[in-house]
Amino acid sequence: MAGERDNKMDFALKEMEKYRDGIKFSEICKIMKKEYPEMTQGSLYGFVRDLYKKHTDKIVKLSTGLYILKIFDQNIVSNNQISSPNNSKSTTTEDEFYQPFADFLDIALETCTSVIPLGGNYLGDKWGTPDVVGVFKTERGDIEQTIEITTAEIKIETSSAALITAFGQACAYKLFSHRVYLVIPEQSGEEAIDRIDSLCILFGIGLILFNKDDPKEPNFQIKNRAQKSMPDIPYFNKKIEKIAKKLNL
């Protein structure tokens, strides 16, 4: 097993030679997954962490989730000017992910009977309008009538300021939601994701990661599921009227 892991590390180091300006944590994971498809997400994350710890003599951590071989370190002009070998830039927009996540919420999470992308200020204000909203409603013939709201805040920016703002928005949705999800890019970096994950767990908010570079295949991954909580009834009543109208409930 040790020999196999060493071989994987040698392969990873060889691949890093192609990235003279540095390589992101998520990109290393993608490369390893392609070469070793049997590796799970958890084992990939652990592998990259071990790769850095074992080879601190060869690898420099430029910033959160960003690594470079020491032989290239002197060529870095700015930690913010990092590129992949093809130097491509993402041209995707946030609203391109609303419908894909609405489909994911509807099918994968199974907590809603109706889901729609929303965004904008449809519910009255920016911080009070989720990007995606879902409703669970019991059938009319059921003895007890139940209506629950699930909301989601999606962010494609990866800066610390953007992630914290998105977390604050998700917290605001708890005023009228039974379940809230924060959806952030897997490219945000290991340290930032871990910090946001801890905050989400503390506040009962679900965390989902995705690939911000491809709206057609965002590859949504559940980091943790949202915990159900009771919303503030006045806020709930105020929002559900507009949501129900939008969903034709």
How would you sum up this structure, described in words?
It is a single chain. The chain is α+β, with helices and mostly antiparallel strands and 249 residues long. It has 2 domains: 2-75, Arc Repressor Mutant, subunit A; 94-247, 3-Layer(aba) Sandwich (Trna Endonuclease, Chain: A, domain 1). 38% of the residues lie in helices and 18% in strands. The protein has helices at 2-16, 25-35, 41-54, 98-109, 160-173, 190-203, 233-247; strands at 23-24, 59-63, 66-69, 114-117, 132-137, 147-154, 179-185, 206-210, 221-224. A 6-stranded mixed sheet has the order 4-5-6-7-8-9, sandwiched between helices. α2 (25-35) packs across α3 and α5 runs parallel beside α6. The termini are far apart. Mean pLDDT is 83; it is low at 75-89.
Q: In short, what is this structure?
A:
By secondary structure, the protein is of the alpha+beta class.
Defining traits:
249 residues, alpha+beta, Arc Repressor Mutant, subunit A, Trna Endonuclease, Chain: A, domain 1, 2 domains, 6-stranded mixed sheet, 3-stranded antiparallel sheet, 9 strands
- Helix-strand category: alpha+beta
Largest sheet: 6 strands, mixed
CATH class of the largest domain: Alpha Beta
Shape: elongated
Helical element count? 7
- What is the strand tally? 9
Mean pLDDT: 83
Corresponding CATH architecture of the largest domain: 3-Layer(aba) Sandwich
| Radius of gyration, whole Å | 21 Å
* Poorly predicted parts: 75-89
CATH topology of the largest domain: Trna Endonuclease, Chain: A, domain 1
Strand composition percent? 15-25%
Query: How many discrete structural domains?
Result: 2
Query: First CA to last CA: what distance?
Result: 57 Å
Q: Helical amount among residues, as a percent range?
A: 25-40%
Largest sheet: spatial strand order: 4-5-6-7-8-9
Helix-strand sequence: HEHHEEHEEEHEHEEH
